Amino acid sequence: MADNEPQETDARVPDSGIPEDSEPHHSTPKLHTPDITELEGSRPEQTKASFTDLLKPSDWLKAVLVVTSPEARIPAWNSRAPTRELEMLTPARDSWVTEREKQVHRRRQNATKVVRDRASTLEREQRDLKKPKESGDKTKQTPLSNRPTVSLMICVLISFLLLALVWQFMDRNGEGQDYHKLGLSHYETGEYEFALEWFLKDLEVQQAKGHKANLVTAHIDVAKTYRLLDKTDLATSHLNTALQMAQQTDDQHGQMEVYFCLGDLQREQLHDPRTSIQYYKQALTLARQLGDRHEEGLTYNRLGMAHDEMGEYQEALEWHQKALKIHQTGDQHGQMRVCFWMGDLQKDQLHSPSTSIQYYDQYLALARQLGDRREEGLAYNRLGLAHSDMGEYEAALEWDKMYLKISEEIGEKKNQIAAHTQVGNAFRLLGKVDQATSHFNTALRMAQQVGDQHGRMDVYFYMGEIQRDKFNSPRTSIQYYEQSLALARQLRDKHWEGAAYNRLGRAHYEMGEYEAALEWLKKELMIRLESGDKAYLLTAHENMAGSYKALGKPDQARSHYQSAMTLAMETGNKEKQDVIAKELASL
């Protein structure tokens, strides 16, 4: 039976606005927030004494550094502490400034508790002071550092410093912008749940302000994040809201962005490229009206991708060439994207990995020229896949290792998962099972940690491959293929669903369970008929023919072999024509 192996899904090239799928650098580390017991300490007298010298503005700044430091311990601090030690708190203070809003809220709550507790202390001290005065016992009067006036000063000072700092970062005038930036930061690192949290807060702020243009952008950001979390209903709802607002205010840029996003949702999540084309064409019309050549080029790219997925490769090629023509006017980023998609078209649809390498080489050169490490990594990814398709597994492994290294340097979690999966698969194809298994296990662990369902789907598929073709255990492989299939269905990924049907059919065939194999292969054939990809359709007919032949049904086998032969001739696949001719002669 014929193999029909898909390639790993991986991060896409960003197009506009929020990047499509990936990430720079590191997630914000969680910082410790001292609670009230830490602020007060176990020795209140020492706490109060520590702040008796805070009479000058320079000392107030030192206090701010300490109070806002994640490592702050007020009882241990004194305004006369060495300057070097105080300066060491500055990085912690700067980190705190960018920490989550809940940290700020918690600080505000702590400050409120400080005020309340200080007030209670003041009342208690007033009572304590009143008693010795009434008895005339001057020896029991409170020392200077503990007198009510000093305690009041300490109370007001600490509370004011905390609250002033908190409200500085809670200023509503800049709050939405900060939320938006924080959302983008998490989005770009693939932390979509965190990104969503910030984008929703940004949306709330923009709703309070009532600024329509910003509201449109906020709804689009939320929708894009929901889309990548595979929450298509919520994504669609926010996009429809954004479109309605953009139409009401005649915001053509907003409308263009919404149509673009709706096209992406239809094509990538709902796997309906035909519907996506309608949205992309609406976006294209607006881009032309606005004279936005950049967006026009991006839309040409998307139209090429949609036709590509429908099996209409000539139309896809024409759209990509239009995009390339626009971007050759000096837009090197645009040229880079077109080289990427032209390479994918040659590799995945026209099944010409050697030609795709030429485009990927151009893509890599532009990425290096622009100093774009993320795009450089994706070029390594594609070069590894192309060499693997050509059976050049050693070369593929070298590119895959470079992809893994750069993904780890940048901190892109999803790309690290894809890279470990690719490296593992290269080792598998080289017969190095232990190394392959190690990388697959790493990829699976990371995918589970970050909730990357596509990553899990890929890993389960290739773990099934190891069981079937290296350990000769088709029964065990079925368990992995079924897990991959369940995720493919959940993600509505027809391509991987078809691949899982193919492998389940092969596993049952190898176990001699030809009827079961035939049922799975029929499902694969239906998927391939829907996609229109002739290469995969050829393989599906060939596998069906093999199953019917094994069941002793030569007429049905002959029919499918003839269909496969027609497709082999249409695609110019001479090797397949020879194989199928021999099978037909044997019936």
TrEMBL record:
Keyword Transmembrane helix: yes
PROSITE patterns recorded: TPR
Record-linked SMART domains: TPR
Membrane-spanning residues: 150-170
Region (Disordered): 1-50, 100-144
InterPro entries, A to Z: TPR-like_helical_dom_sf, TPR_rpt
Signal peptide: none
Biased composition (Basic and acidic residues): 22-46, 114-140
Keyword list, A-Z: Membrane, TPR repeat, Transmembrane, Transmembrane helix
TPR repeat windows: 176-209, 297-330, 417-450, 498-531
Name of this chain's protein: TTC28 protein
Designated gene of the protein: TTC28
